[in-house]
Write a structure and sequence with these properties.
Pfam families: DctQ. It contains eight helices and no strands. It is an all-alpha fold and about 170 residues long.
Amino acid sequence: MLSRFDRAFVWANQFVVGALLLIMAVLVFANVALRYVAGISLPWVEEVTRYMMIWVSWLAVGLAMREGAHIAIDNLQDALPEVWARLLRLVVFASIVAFFAAVAWYGWQYASFAWRQQSAVLRLSLGAVYMAIPIGSLLMLGHVFLTAHKLLATRNSGEAQAQAAEFSVL
């Protein structure tokens, strides 16, 4: 059951990130084409795609973590005996959870504070833009908890991390 939920969770996260990237690409391409073909530029495209990039960044951070695509230094872990290495991974896991829980909380506070502020061109609520921070942090926490067994149980080799980082670029 959890495996099925995990796959659906990852698929939904990837779908939203991919859809946002596709929409951004279409909007930027159309704006450039309009600029060179018709001599007009849509001023709202730059603003919308900037905010979409913020959302993509925050929504994709958990996916990158799952693939091992974030920078990791594992020299200390590799130098420790297995018991101490496992304890170190537990401390790192707890630190990640605490950090993203705090970011979600303060991100919510900031988005609530900025809710009445408006963007320059489209008059969008900046709070809606900043909601990417708590939502992305909560998604990251979801990814962390769903992969906790993998994060805590085994050491990741440098080769495995390099392959994951390489795969995430493709």
